[in-house]
Amino acid sequence: MKVDFDHYRGTEIADMEVSSLIEQRDMQLISILKPEFNKDGNMFCFTYPSQNGLPNNCVQGFGKTPYLAACDFNKNFYNQKY
After folding, report:
1. Helix (H/G/I), strand (E/B), else coil: 61
2. CA-to-CA distance for 58 and 77, rounded, in angstroms?
3. What is the model's pLDDT at position 78?
4. Across residues 18-39, what is the average pLDDT?
């Protein structure tokens, strides 16, 4: 999408486009792995693989919203130690 920055709303439109691209990037790992999603108390949780295994053998992400849980899951997935 080409954004006209001379337009009075050009920067606002560009910021919305960047936010949309960041959100798509953050949700890409979730859409590929399809981790289990549930609510744990007052927090949302993504778990991969499912909770059938031991908790220390899986990647989890928690957050107050599904999007924040997905971001935490991504961070934990890419920073996991073996």
Report:
1. strand
2. 9
3. 87
4. 87
pLDDT band at 19 (very low <50, low <70, confident <90, very high): confident
10 in helix, strand or coil? helix
Q: Looking at the whole model, is its pTM more than 0.85?
A: no
In this model, does residue 15 exceed pLDDT 70?
Answer: yes
Name the residue among 53, 58, 51 with its Cα closest to residue 76.
58
**Separation CA 13–CA 79 (nearest Å):** 33
Backbone angles phi, psi at 60, to 5 degrees: -130, 155
Half-sphere exposure of 29 (CA within 13 A, CB side): 19
Q: What would the two tokens of residue 6 be?
A: 């001379």
Domain ranges within the chain, ordered by starting residue: 10-78
